[in-house]
Amino acid sequence: MAVPRGTRFEIEHDHVFPAGAAIVGPVTPDMEYVSNEDKARGKQPKQKIDEQTGLPQWKVTVTDPSAEKDRDKSATVTLLDRVQPVPPPAAMQGFDFRPVVFEGLMVEPRVMGEKFKYQGWVLRATGMREPGGAAAPKPAASKGTSGQGASGQKAA
Question: Which residues have C-beta within 8 Å of that of residue 75, sequence separation ≥ 6?
Fold first, then answer.
């Protein structure tokens, strides 16, 4: 069976993060790589656009307390939205640790690692919300994303 590269599979948040997930940094634009040579020529980095949805990509780092291996305790999730997603409020004042549930979560299998290869996953989501709350309403500008979202990695 041949599955084309770039195939994404919908998955529930609780299957990927059975013990929950927490954002441990800001939501930032996912920028294209620009080499030092191109920078010297004046080329400016642009925000990446998702090939399947045409939406701008935003990235956020999350921690996964259920991960068994150290390399899997942190993952990057790519959020697909026309505007910069706003994370839920911090769990404790003074700490940038925000429990989160990802909506429209999709996984894409990838071979990861440099010297030692392993099966990993690119994570994409269309939104995020505070755990335990009702699903947040999506702004009209974000509709029609076909349930595809953020990119990150989580090794199997």
Answer: 21, 61, 62, 63, 64, 123, 152, 153, 154
